Amino acid sequence: MAFTFASPRDTPRALREILRERIERAGDHLAAPARQRAEGIHEARKRFKELRAVLKLLPDQDEPGVAALDRQFRDAGRALSGTRDAQALLECWDKLNAADPGPLDTPLGRSFHAALRRNARAHLHETDTLVGTLEGLRAALQDHPPHLPEFAAAADGFTLIEPGLRRSYRAGRRQLESVAHDPTAERFHDWRKRVKDHWYHSRLIAGAWPEALEYRQQRFKLLSDLLGDDHDLDVLAGQLRQWPDRPRQGAQRETLFAAIARRQAVLRRDALALGRRLYAENPRAFTRRIAVYWSLWDQEQP
Q: Rounded to whole angstroms, how far apart are CA atoms 84 and 167?
């Protein structure tokens, strides 16, 4: 089942089916064999983020069942964050090396890279702890499908999800303004969370006009990737600051920091340029436009 509405009608039922299918897929990823464990964890965390994004489309975010599910999916993702973050830092180093290899090819750079590799392997091979975590999460997921909350059926079609879609878009637009005013690492990271929400929502509504909305989701995915790479570099710099000082390596350390800063400057410049275009419409105009697409989609149904 694709992560999208297959029809403009009966959105309450469709939301439940999407949640059910993503829960099942997350369980499958958590059961990946040892040789595929890194990819399985990465994919499971994506499913948890998708599940939380679906819940953000619901009109009543404070409904106890919805809030409880959101907390459980959030905590499940966090339980796997250490393993995934260790892999992400190694990938971040590789991307930085591809963009600016000179500063990394030093004794300090090579020893730091080796430490990142060891840390990533250690997280994947802490077998008892990790397998116990994965099994616990799978057991919890198996209990969810029969107990998914019933969504209020007073609204249907686009009417049910319009408030949540507008709320998601508005949050990203406001965070863009916050970042432009005060471009701190924390603000960029918070913006990425809101961008990912809207990327997931763009995927869900793509059926209303596939050609236009699939392009939109591609652009939001690119923006999310830019911001994700920026955050990973910030974490990488933090790890480097904790790396023990060694004689005659001070200049190498500063060269590495400079390479990270240069790459972040490019990523942030590109993210802001793209974000200003993607968030150019005000929230009401955006959801009105999607409502028109949705209405036309509905009229075209047999």
A: 29
Q: Is pLDDT above 60 for 192?
A: yes
Taking alpha carbons only, the member of 271, 60, 295 closest to residue 163 is 60
Contacts of 155 (CB under 8 A, 6+ apart): 59
What does the domain layout of the chain look like in residue ranges?
A: 11-299
CA dist 3 and 7 (Å) reads: 12
* Calpha distance 278→276 (Å, rounded): 6
| Run of H or E including 173 | helix 158-181
The domain 11-299 belongs to what CATH superfamily? CHAD domain (1.40.20.10)
DSSP class of residue 81 equals H
Residue 146 binned pLDDT confidence (cut-offs 50, 70, 90): very low
The reported pLDDT for the residue numbered 245 is 76
**Using CA atoms, how far apart are residues 231 and 229, in angstroms rounded to an integer?**
5
Single-letter amino acid code for the residue at 152: A
d(CA 70, CA 85): 21
The answer to whether residue 120 scores a pLDDT higher than 60 is yes
Determine the Cα–Cα distance for residues 289 and 301; give it in Å rounded to an integer: 19
CA distance 189 to 149: 31
Q: CB of 109 within 8 A of CB of 2? A: no
The one-letter code for the residue type at 94 is: D
Separation in Å, CA 118 to CA 33, 79, 86, 257? 21, 20, 9, 21
- Output the DSSP codes for 32-77: --GGGHHHHHHHHHHHHHHHHHHHHTSS-TT-HHHHHHHHHHHHHH
Closest C-alpha among 37, 84, 51, 71 to residue 228: 84
